[in-house]
Design a protein that fits this description.
By secondary structure, the chain is of the alpha+beta class. The model has no long low-confidence stretch (mean pLDDT 86). It is 34% helix and 25% strand. The longest helix is centred in the C-terminal third of the chain and has 29 residues. Bound molecules: biliverdine IX alpha. The site of biliverdine IX alpha has 27 residues, from strand 10, helix 7, strand 14 and strand 15.
Length: 519
């Protein structure tokens, strides 16, 4: 266990993958290759397996499991483990067999086996699973829009799991997020449309949620269980628990849930292009264990929804995209009628702005004395441009494009003109000749409904020191977003990338014609 004191500046660095602790509703065994010798165990083996940790350490797993189960574990390790986990495990030598759901995987130079006691009436056959999800999958696929799909999913997950509240949480491009669908008991405070800052689900937590489809905390008031010995003997470092289903949760997050009045929580990952797109977040006000069969059904729903995201998102902006495409074609057609590119731009100024719904643009061509810049609409002062362009040169190097919805966050001098230019979308037509088009969007004093004060996750203690504290209240209040413009849509960014290839064609042709006249 590390002793890092978490505060707002190091929130992203809390090593949540190596807590050295598990939640007490299962046991964790770390095994050495070949003989499956038990080299590290959680401290609760006597409660759940009937053996003290010290009795188990150094023993082969075959002391606990019969040959058939050991063979099943090897088979699970030799193929894609997701296709076989969870295994049915029973511990030998007990008067009454102890039955578990077991998951096994290789990680951190060892083999990890995690066991959760089976609940009495639990049946997890394929037919049961199929019955549970069949209708849901069809509904998801038929949903005409992204939001309707999310609405169906929260209803279905609530029905299947019996969680009190189920929500879809969607990340924006800056890592903050909002609740876009919710199913909850009548009369409960709605979280729908509330926005939450990026720090509520820090980067490293998001990373773990892309590795695992499901995160379950059945009772936030649990007593964490230590691993013995503290380090993984295979590495002599704390066990990397990135894949562990029993991993103990960050104390900060536990406090956060407690402050929300949540006792059990479960999140299902929504992943698009290997990135975390959002989470299906489930809450319960009393402890709630979710059996493996139900979890598998939820995981499957999350996976199907993830696959559908791309199609549904594409439909979302369809009308707008069609309009953008026609604007783009008309713009380039008109531009090619002009002898010089810059003359054309001056004439077609409003079209240039419409292309990406910008309120201002600057077009710069040439270098040194030959440099010409045209300002259209609302733009930063001319004097501020050379420094901005110099800074941009490095930012834009990789793919000829740069975009931000808060320029002052990445380029502090922009603070001065954030009112008219918080959003910047920049295109390098040619980097060699420093030919750029810059589009600007004003700061939207957009009033967003934040689920708390995004700037006040830290609370002052009596001694004056600051300690990170999740917000005590989730009551709705409003926060004006300073220095942010409306985000650039993916289809707008794509249109600009397309514009580049079309413009290169026009410019080359104009240059050729000019050369021909001069011959
Ligand atoms: C994890 N934070 C999470 C998770 C959610 C949220 C859904 C996933 C784990 C789970 O399902 O319980 C956030 N939950 C929300 C939000 C809503 C919700 C926004 O229901 C809105 C309705 N949390 C903080 C701060 C820190 C923090 C300031 O508020 C950082 C210091 C950390 N959140 C944090 C960590 C995790 C987390 C470390 C990972 C927990 C884990 O998996 O161990």
């Amino acid at each position: 266990m590390t002793e890092l004191r978490v505060n707002l500046t190091n929130c992203d660095q809390e090593p949540i993958h190596i807590p050295g602790l598990i939640q007490p509703h299962g046991v964790l065994l770390v095994l050495k290759e070949l003989k499956l010798e038990i080299i590290q165990v959680s401290h609760n083996t006597s409660e759940l397996l009937g053996h003290q940790p010290q009795e188990l350490l150094g023993k082969p797993l075959s002391d606990l499991l019969d040959a058939k189960q050991i063979a099943a574990i090897w088979q699970c390790l030799s193929v894609e483990f997701e296709s076989i986990n969870p295994l049915n495990i029973s511990i030998k030598g007990q008067t009454k067999p102890l039955r578990f759901d077991g998951i096994v995987y290789r990680w951190d130079s060892a083999i990890v086996l995690e066991l959760e006691p089976k609940k009495a009436r639990q049946k997890t056959d394929f037919f049961d699973f199929y019955q549970r999800v069949r209708g849901t999958i069809t509904k998801i696929q038929k949903a005409p829009t992204l939001l309707e799909m999310c609405q169906i999913v929260v209803k279905e997950v609530r029905r299947i799991t019996e969680f009190e509240r189920v929500m879809v949480y969607r990340f924006d491009t800056e890592g903050a997020g909002s609740i876009i669908a919710e199913d909850k008991p009548d009369g409960a405070t709605p979280y729908l449309d509330l926005h939450y800052p990026a720090s509520d689900i820090p980067q490293q937590a998001r990373q773990l949620y892309t590795l695992n489809w499901l995160r379950l905390i059945p009772d936030v008031n649990y007593q964490p269980v230590e691993l013995i010995p503290a380090n993984n003997p295979a590495t002599d470092r704390p066990l990397d628990m990135s894949l562990s289903v029993l991993r103990s949760a960050s104390p900060i997050h536990i406090e956060y849930l407690q402050n929300m009045g949540v006792t059990a929580s479960m999140s299902i990952s929504l992943i698009q292009d290997r990135k975390l797109w959002g989470l299906i977040a489930c809450h319960h006000s009393s402890p709630k264990y979710v059996p493996y069969g139900v979890r598998t059904a939820c995981e499957f729903i999350g996976q199907v929804m993830s696959l559908e995201l791309a199609t549904k998102e594409a439909n979302e902006d369809l009308d707008y995209k069609v309009r953008l495409q026609s604007l783009l074609t008309k713009f380039v057609e008109s531009l090619s009628q002009f002898e010089s590119f810059l003359d054309g731009i001056v004439q077609l100024e409003s079209n240039l702005l419409d292309l990406v719904s910008a309120s201002g643009a600057v077009v710069c061509l040439g270098e040194g004395k030959a440099k010409r810049c045209i300002h259209i609409g609302e733009t930063p002062p001319e004097a501020a441009l050379p420094a901005l362009l110099d800074w941009l040169k490095h930012e834009i190097q990789l793919n000829n494009l740069f975009h931000t919805r808060s320029l002052s966050q990445v380029y502090p001098p922009a603070e001065e003109f954030k009112g008219i230019a918080s959003g910047l979308l920049a295109l390098a037509i040619s980097q060699v000749h420093q030919n750029y088009i810059l589009w600007f969007r004003p700061e939207v004093m957009q009033t967003i409904k934040w689920g708390g004060n995004p700037n006040k996750a830290v609370e002052a203690l009596e001694d004056g020191s600051l300690q990170l504290h999740p917000r005590k209240s989730f009551t709705l209040w409003q926060e004006t977003v300073n220095g942010y413009a409306l985000p650039w849509k993916t289809c707008e960014i794509e249109a600009v990338a397309e514009l580049r290839s079309l413009l290169v064609g026009v410019i080359l042709r104009q240059a050729d014609e000019l050369a021909a006249v001069n011959i």
